[in-house]
């Protein structure tokens, strides 16, 4: 048998050796990859493969030497990053471990006696970490200490803000203080400032129930003047108005001087100090002792809203006996049947004469409710907002869900009040 290859290597001829020519031609497929292409592939692999294998080998050897992983782990890429052989992400594992440490530290109390001052800012925390090379748990403790320190500083700032607002709102402006001092001096040196405010012939009007009686209790001279004059200017019957201004001992002289020097005619006015009411004694007015012993504290755990309420409760305006006189109106004015009590921070813009035509139906007080309205802060007041219902007497006689009312302007039926008090006396304990 003989084999013959064509020069182009595209066919092979096979002949037998027995004399018979038995030709068989086999065609070979054409070459699709040239030697030049194969050479280019080898050259490309020789150039770029080292850039992959050399770093991989270095990382593997480094981790094996550092005992961070076994050779099998490193070769299979179990601990390599996502860029090498599909391994897991070290950053995700680190975050999970950090979460675990933070949860552990969150349940622990930070020791006070470790002698380490908490960083006061984020920059200080970073500098502290770079200088000391803390482990994960110490880092978490330092981080927690820093955050708690910042939280305390924020609460202190909020407390200071509320305190400053409180003092700014409750302090007496210099001008008003000087006005009171000058009027007090005028009272002692000027006979006209000491004159009787109600002429003798008009004294019966102070207890005449056919007139409209307004009561204002304040130690602010200018505010009292605004209330009185706004009532007069808005009234259609100023000649039927009688004002009863009540103030404290230190302001009495200045208040008397002001209205002596500034007539409110045709209305009638009287100014009385609380020291001139013989009935106002500790035996008759237990609230006096409660006011004198009033103590209230603030702390950093209070919310700004609750803190503002506590500061408001500590204001001299609210712990003054003048703010509580409305409780004793039937005793202070035994000859009057109906009065309108006005706060010193109101300005009357309409005629209030129709108030005396309202039939209260045997009720004691007429006022505007403060539990219904769009303003969730102002119009959300109920009895539970003001009364301590842990006291058994209060819990027995009052309903905590009962709607409260605005006390800037109240109309009181003193006759009905006295009748109700005689039938169901209230025991203050």
From TrEMBL:
The keyword Lipid metabolism does not apply. It is found in: Golgi apparatus membrane. Keywords: Cell wall biogenesis/degradation, Glycosyltransferase, Golgi apparatus, Membrane, Transferase, Transmembrane, Transmembrane helix. It holds the Pfam family Glyco_transf_8. It comes from the Eukaryota. Its main location: Golgi. GO terms for cellular component: Golgi membrane. GO terms for molecular function: polygalacturonate 4-alpha-galacturonosyltransferase activity. It is a single-pass type II membrane protein. One of its GO terms (biological process) is cell wall organization. The keyword NADP does not apply. InterPro entries: GAUT (IPR029993), Glyco_trans_8 (IPR002495), Nucleotide-diphossugar_trans (IPR029044). Pathway: Glycan metabolism; pectin biosynthesis. Its EC number is 2.4.1.-. The chain crosses the membrane at residues 38-61. Belongs to the glycosyltransferase 8 family. This is Hexosyltransferase. It comes from Acorus calamus (Sweet flag). The gene is GAUT14.
């Amino acid at each position: 048998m003989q084999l013959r290859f064509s020069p182009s290597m595209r066919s092979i001829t096979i002949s037998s050796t027995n004399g018979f020519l038995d030709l068989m031609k086999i065609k070979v497929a054409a070459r699709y990859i040239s030697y030049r292409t194969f050479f280019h592939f080898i050259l490309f692999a020789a150039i770029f493969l080292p850039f992959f294998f050399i770093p991989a080998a270095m990382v593997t050897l480094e981790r094996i030497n550092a005992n961070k992983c076994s050779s099998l782990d490193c070769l299979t890429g179990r601990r390599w990053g996502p860029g090498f052989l599909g391994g897991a992400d070290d950053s995700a594992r680190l975050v999970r471990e950090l979460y675990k440490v933070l949860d552990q530290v969150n349940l622990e109390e930070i020791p006070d006696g470790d002698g380490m001052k908490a960083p006061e800012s984020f920059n200080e925390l970073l500098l502290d970490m770079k200088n000391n090379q803390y482990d994960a748990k110490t880092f978490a403790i330092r981080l927690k200490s820093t955050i708690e320190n910042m939280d305390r500083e924020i609460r202190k700032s909020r407390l200071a803000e509320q305190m400053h607002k409180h003092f700014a709102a409750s302090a007496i402006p210099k001008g008003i203080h000087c006005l009171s001092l000058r009027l007090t001096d005028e009272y002692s040196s000027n006979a006209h400032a000491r004159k009787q405010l109600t002429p003798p012939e008009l004294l019966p009007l102070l207890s005449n129930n056919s007139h409209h009686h307004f009561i204002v209790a304040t130690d602010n001279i200018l505010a009292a003047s605004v209330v009185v004059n706004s009532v007069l200017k808005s009234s259609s019957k100023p000649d039927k108005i009688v004002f009863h201004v009540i103030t404290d001992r230190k302001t009495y002289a200045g208040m008397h001087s002001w209205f002596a020097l500034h007539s409110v005619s045709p209305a009638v006015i009287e100014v009385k100090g609380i020291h001139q009411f013989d009935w106002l004694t500790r035996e008759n007015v237990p609230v006096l002792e409660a006011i004198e012993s009033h103590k209230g504290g603030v702390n950093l755990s209070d919310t700004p809203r609750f803190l503002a309420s506590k500061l408001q409760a500590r204001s001299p305006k609210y712990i003054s006996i003048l703010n509580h006189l409305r409780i004793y109106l039937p005793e202070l004015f035994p000859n009057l049947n109906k009065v309108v009590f006005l706060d010193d921070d109101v300005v009357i813009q309409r005629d209030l004469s129709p108030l005396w035509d309202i039939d209260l139906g045997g009720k004691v007080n007429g006022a505007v409710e403060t539990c219904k309205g769009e303003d969730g802060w102002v119009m959300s007041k109920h009895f539970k907002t003001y009364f301590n219902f842990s006291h058994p007497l209060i819990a027995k006689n009052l309903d905590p869900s009962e709607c409260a009312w605005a006390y800037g302007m109240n109309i009181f039926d003193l006759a009905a009040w006295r009748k109700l008090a005689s039938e169901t006396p209230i025991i203050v304990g």
